[in-house]
């Protein structure tokens, strides 16, 4: 008898629970349906309000939108032009900086080379001060003089090799056309067999470092 009562109570509880769940589901579906209907009606009403009332207003709105589109297209074009110019300017700056860095590397020793030119001139003068004929006579008279002369020539040759290794090249423009970028005219004179503007005398050899003039050659030029 007790078991029957428990069974009856259990079925009653299950029935009440199922009924409550079904009621909640119906209420939820009804609310969702009502909300969707109201929302759709509100959107339709809002859409109806946004539409122009007349055909003329539609044309005006289209013209306004077309004007805005044209303005935006022009802005986009202007921004593209500015972007391209900025890229070009950046590339030019990059190239100039690279050129400056390369020049700095190439001409970093320019002042040092210029200071050595006087030393080279002195060595050349010392080596050329003893002609070959005098050297032959000195061989029997004083072997020390010959040794000194050979040492000067060897030192001068080594110095020329060092200059060439670092891009320092001598400029001795005898019988060449006068170049104001590389030569400095000390005087002009009429010389037979030379065209006007031709270098006839080199008083002092010039030098250039990587095609840049470090010291102009001091020359005499034929006068027309």
Automatic annotation (TrEMBL):
For biological process, the GO terms are: protein folding; protein import into mitochondrial matrix
Q: Which residues form a coiled coil?
A: 55-96
**Annotated GO CC locations:** PAM complex, Tim23 associated import motor
Q: Name one GO molecular function term.
A: protein homodimerization activity
Quote the subcellular location field of this record: Mitochondrion matrix
In Pfam terms, one family for this protein is GrpE
Is Nuclease one of the keywords?
Answer: no
> Gene3D superfamilies from the entry?
3.90.20.20, Head domain of nucleotide exchange factor GrpE (2.30.22.10)
Keyword Ligase listed? The answer is: no
Domain of life (superkingdom): Eukaryota
| Keywords on record | Chaperone, Coiled coil, Mitochondrion
Which PANTHER family does the UniProt entry name for this protein? GRPE PROTEIN (PTHR21237), GRPE PROTEIN HOMOLOG, MITOCHONDRIAL (PTHR21237:SF23)
As for what it does, the entry says:
Essential component of the PAM complex, a complex required for the translocation of transit peptide-containing proteins from the inner membrane into the mitochondrial matrix in an ATP-dependent manner.
Family stated for the protein in its record: Belongs to the GrpE family.
HAMAP family per the UniProt record, alphabetical: GrpE
What's the name of the protein?
A: GrpE protein homolog
Species source reads Papilio polytes (Common mormon)
Please name the taxonomic classification of the source: Eukaryota, Metazoa, Ecdysozoa, Arthropoda, Hexapoda
């Amino acid at each position: 008898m007790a078991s029957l009562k428990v069974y009856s109570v259990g079925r009653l509880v299950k029935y009440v629970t199922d009924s409550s769940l079904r009621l909640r589901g119906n209420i939820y579906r009804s609310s969702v349906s009502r909300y969707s209907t109201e929302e759709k009606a509100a959107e339709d009403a809002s859409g109806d309000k946004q539409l122009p009332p007349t055909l003329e207003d539609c044309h005006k709105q289209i013209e306004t939108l077309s004007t805005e589109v044209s303005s935006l297209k022009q802005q986009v074009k202007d921004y593209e032009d500015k972007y391209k110019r900025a890229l070009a300017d950046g590339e030019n700056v990059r190239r100039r900086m690279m050129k400056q860095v390369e020049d700095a590397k190439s001409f970093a020793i320019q002042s040092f080379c210029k200071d050595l030119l006087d030393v080279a001139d002195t060595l050349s003068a010392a080596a050329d001060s003893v002609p070959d004929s005098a050297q032959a006579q000195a061989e029997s008279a004083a072997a020390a003089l010959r040794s000194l002369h050979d040492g000067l020539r060897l030192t001068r040759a080594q110095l020329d090799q060092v200059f060439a290794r670092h891009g320092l090249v001598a400029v001795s423009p005898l019988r060449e056309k006068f170049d104001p970028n590389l030569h400095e005219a000390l005087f002009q004179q009429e010389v037979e067999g030379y065209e006007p503007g031709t270098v006839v005398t080199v008083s002092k050899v010039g030098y250039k470092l990587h095609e840049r003039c470090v010291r102009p050659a001091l020359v005499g030029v034929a006068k027309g």
